[in-house]
UniProtKB/TrEMBL annotation, chains A, B:
Pathway note: Aromatic compound metabolism; 3,4-dihydroxybenzoate biosynthesis
Native organism: Streptomyces glycanivorans
Protein name: 3-dehydroshikimate dehydratase
Catalytic activity: 3-dehydroshikimate = 3,4-dihydroxybenzoate + H2O
Residues engaged in binding a divalent metal cation: E134, D165, Q191, E239
UniProt region (Disordered), positions on chain: 330-361
């Protein structure tokens, strides 16, 4: 099916919006009236610009408060419509959106509404224009798609059909089965938007909080399926009013939008992009750093050993159990971002993939930037894509004795002599990645759609200087977990150390692991004594247990399935490490302790 | 009455919050448990810190899910309470807040609730602690203050009373008359917060959108009056959960909070600060600029003449009718803000005041920074305060022939020879001031409370790069109007010219005025042709009228009371001018045209 996007979904001038939509691969656009009114381009110039970009103009919108009004008011409305139809001819748009009246003058009279819409359709037809009538969820008398269809059916005019808008229909919790009773040819247009479930006035909800399908809680795919079953074959068009998209870079938003639409088409069964390839574990975590003076001793204290060096790049492999960390001192590749100025930073994640090439094909079909394969001749191919936050995700296979097939990424590394001194770390539990402000939903969609991970609910975490939002994505068995976090404002104060990222490492027995780390010189994050007083009030502990936690800076959480013990190293550059022990079926990340951890990190940074 | 603020209302560490509360003049604080838990200071050290700052610790909060639970659960709760009472003794806090249960284990049994709260109060009393029981609006079984009071009354324990929270009570639209039936001595605490009226889930509304009294839509003063009539004489304490305050500078937020509380006390009739002095007009608008090369010709083209120069400062007075503009080239005073680097900027507004000293006393009592009087010996005294956006407001008298009393500000100016060449401008209609991000409510409260202006509803304006919010404040007859605007994100992109401010000037006949301005070389903002097509569709105009508007770049609006014609000069530095003609009783600002104006300004800047 053709894809389209309403210009109101993107920021900037009309010219910028058209360019962004075209670059992201949309087939057409809906022109939102205000975008045209504010543009210095004439309708003819806009038509030409769109054509040059390969975009059709699928809809002109909106026309308001047309129908079910007294005769004199309707005469004025027809006059207004004549002006707009003239404009649409100049623009080359052949479908106009008419929203159900919200006017205080509108009367509750379906026969009047049908008659006036028929008259409007007559006028439209003379100009070769079709009228798509849509029920606004807050329409004065017509607020459901069934009602709009009854009026259109009664009007019985070839140039009059309905427009179905997923927000207006799903926000009201409407039954979708009635859609299949509408002849497909009478569904003139399909506007798609998602939204988070909110108990908010529906107009405010609609105007400010819509999002792209898959970023909210509405079942937009069910609506698409119903429309397709009804025989609709027009464009799938995104119409999203969102305060954030209004100010975000249009090019970036358009890519996010197009990715959402592909995933929606996949869910609705109308397109089949390459299937998702769910990762089965962490192959490695890569930390970039100009020098290793601070990070290498920390890794050593945490029980890692430098086991190998890349054959062609200044990259060291550090291992302990199944936990692998790459230290990359090839900072030339990243100097333009300035991300290394403040020391080590987490730049890449290797995901163990059952099918690296398939994962890469999936990512490419979803507009993830595929990275140039940084390989020397003879290196194993490394399929990699960039996430919205800039983190590079590699799809890899870690070769094990006897493996055949896809060459393992470790084949590029030359073993180095070393004496293992593990402290009990077995693997990576999760990585926590800071997302750019206002791109949290984009990140969730990316990790779900491109990487095949399942998002959990988002939580608010109280930092001393603002609320953070955090959402974990993971594979089914929890062997790949990523915690996506976003701050409260665009500028993380560099004076306070920026927003560091972290790598959480699994141990089966935290207390001896921490003791060994401390004995080897690791600096752990000090936890305020008040925290342990609070813990003592909350739960009973075995004798000595709480004292041990207090001594070692261990935090504690429990849920109905199990317990969680964790502690943190101090931050070096933009990275710190967490040591975690999961007991029983505990599936969380210690969110209740995050405010204490954040306060302690701020205290240390000052 | 004593004033207090909950630490959760301010950002930062506990130490920073205490310091900010003290600096703003609060008498005490409520300690929010998370702030203590995350603090490296021991309870004794916190007690000492507060005492050193002259702050009492009026409340420790919150204790949750205590009452109406099964016996074994209650035993655990008492154990928890023992821990917390021990902590409160160390902290020197003698009142604890207990919120009504939200626990799924809580049962709907008032007798059980009363019995368990009595037992809790027994335990508290042993430690010299009082328990203030509060109904959360989303409490599982107890969600109204009347219900909470019935349980407290039944428990009948001297160490048990109620806490009244204005949010929980007013958000539910509760009848306040029941408050006076509670003996004042049993109202242990009063927590105050306002909130904008929202059809939002009450818990989300409460946790994220509370604001300081006077910044929302709840009648907090009515609640204070009821509590005072009941005999309550404890502190008035602000407890505001707000996403913005969590990240804003704590010192600034505390001042805003303290100002809100003074205005609330005034509304409730428990304090009488100096009465408001409502300004009666604009005395002048001051524009600072390093050089006048760009602005002076523009003023000349707009019909202003340089009529006088200040006797002691490089400040010129330009006049036309009752419109007065000061050009101040004394940029030394402002170089630290860097505001002049990009050319002329609007820095001060002179308000015609019936009582400048009174206005200044009012401002000072409301913690407005009173500015050093920038005067030479012999100058008229200039009472001035700084608004939250940095604009300086002067309270002045413009002397007219035969006036006596307060010396006029023009007495400091030496007339300059000039030939008037007016183009029909009679006075200043309004000034539009850009507010810092996230400080819109603070600005509204300031202009209402300190300057005595009346706020109108806020409106959203669609800029191509994000939604702006705008709210006008004015005096009764509209001779003083200020449009406060705020952008969508903290950094206005300097590449797009920053967010300019503007001065709107009144003419009784816009068309000839604009023609004369153009003839004198004024550059007016070009308006897209599409705007006039849209206007033609919307309304019928007299023959030639629309063509004239199109020719001159005049925008048009109408409401039920009249019409509005307006147009804009191009921006110079950070300032532009608007020419406005109000016809009939039109009382707005042409908000419907703002998106077109903003788009046109962006187009010109690129």
């Amino acid at each position: 099916m053709r894809t389209s996007i309403a210009t109101v979904s993107l920021s900037g001038t009309l010219t910028e919006k058209l360019a962004a939509a075209a670059r992201a691969g949309f087939d057409g656009v809906e022109i939102f009236e205000n975008d045209l009114t504010g543009s210095p381009l004439s309708p003819e110039e806009i038509r030409e610009r769109a054509a040059d970009l390969g975009l059709t103009i699928d809809l002109y919108q909106p026309m308001r408060d047309i129908e079910a009004v007294p005769a004199d008011e309707f005469a004025r409305n027809l006059r207004r419509a004549e002006h707009k139809f003239r404009l649409m001819r100049r623009l080359g748009a052949d479908t106009v959106l008419v929203c159900s009246s919200v006017s205080p003058y509108a009367v509750d009279d379906d026969t009047l509404a049908a008659g006036q819409l028929r008259r409007l359709a007559d006028l439209a037809q003379e100009s070769g224009i079709r009228v798509a009538y849509e029920a606004l969820a807050w329409g004065r008398h017509v607020s459901t798609y069934e009602h709009a269809w009854r009026i259109v059916e009664a009007a019985d005019h070839p140039a009059l059909g309905v427009c179905l808008d997923s927000f207006h229909i799903l926000a009201r919790g409407s039954d979708l089965s009635g859609i299949e009773d509408i002849p497909g040819g009478k569904i003139f247009f399909l506007q798609l938007a998602d939204a988070p479930q909110m108990a908010l006035d529906v107009l405010q909800w609609s105007r400010h909080h819509r999002c792209f399908p898959g970023q909210g809680d509405l079942d937009v795919a069910a609506l698409v399926r119903a429309a397709v079953r009804a025989g609709y074959d027009g464009p799938l068009s995104l119409e999203v009013f969102n305060d954030v998209f209004r100010q975000a870079d249009a090019g970036r938003t358009a890519i996010d939008a197009r990715r959402s639409l592909t995933l929606l088409q996949e869910s609705a069964g109308v397109t089949a992009p390459p299937a998702p390839v769910v990762p089965t574990g962490f192959a490695f975590v890569e930390i970039a750093t100009a020098d290793t003076a601070r990070i290498a001793p920390l890794l050593t204290a945490l029980g890692f050993s430098r086991t190998a060096r890349h054959s062609g790049k200044p990259v060291d492999l550090w291992e302990q159990g199944e936990a692998r960390i790459l230290l990359n001192t090839d900072t030339d590749t990243d100097t333009d971002t300035g991300s290394h100025r403040s020391g080590p930073s987490l730049t890449a994640v290797g995901l163990e993939s059952p099918d690296p090439a398939g994962a890469s094909a999936r990512a490419e079909s979803l507009l993830a930037p595929v990275l140039p394969r940084r390989r020397a001749p003879g290196d194993a191919p490394l399929d990699a894509v960039a996430a919205p936050d800039g983190t590079e995700f590699f799809f890899c296979v870690t070769e094990r004795p006897g493996d055949t097939g896809h060459p393992g990424w470790t084949g590029d590394f030359v073993p180095a002599p070393h004496t293992p001194a593990p402290i009990g770390i077995t693997r990576v539990d999760h990585v926590a990645l800071s997302q750019p402000w206002h791109h949290f939903d984009e990140a969730t969609l990316f990790h779900r759609g491109v990487l095949g991970l399942r998002p959990q609910a988002s939580v608010d975490l109280a930092d001393p200087y603002g609320l953070l939002r955090s959402r974990a994505v993971s594979n089914e068995d929890g062997t790949v977990r990523i915690a996506l976090g976003v701050g409260a404002s665009p500028g993380e104060d560099p004076a306070r150390g920026g927003r560091p990222q972290h790598v959480a490492l699994v141990t089966d027995d935290l207390v001896p692991t921490v003791r060994r780390a401390l004995a080897s010189g690791a600096r752990m994050l000090p936890v305020p004594a008040n925290y342990y007083d609070d813990l003592a009030a909350a739960h009973e502990f075995a004798p000595g247990e709480l004292e041990t936690y207090r001594e070692l800076g261990i935090l504690h959480d429990r849920d109905e399935k199990g317990e969680f013990r964790h502690c943190y190293t101090v931050t070096t550059g933009r990275v710190f490490f967490e040591l975690v022990e999961r007991v029983g079926g505990y599936d969380g990340y210690g969110a209740r302790n995050a405010p204490v951890r954040l306060a302690a990190q701020h205290a240390l940074a000052e």
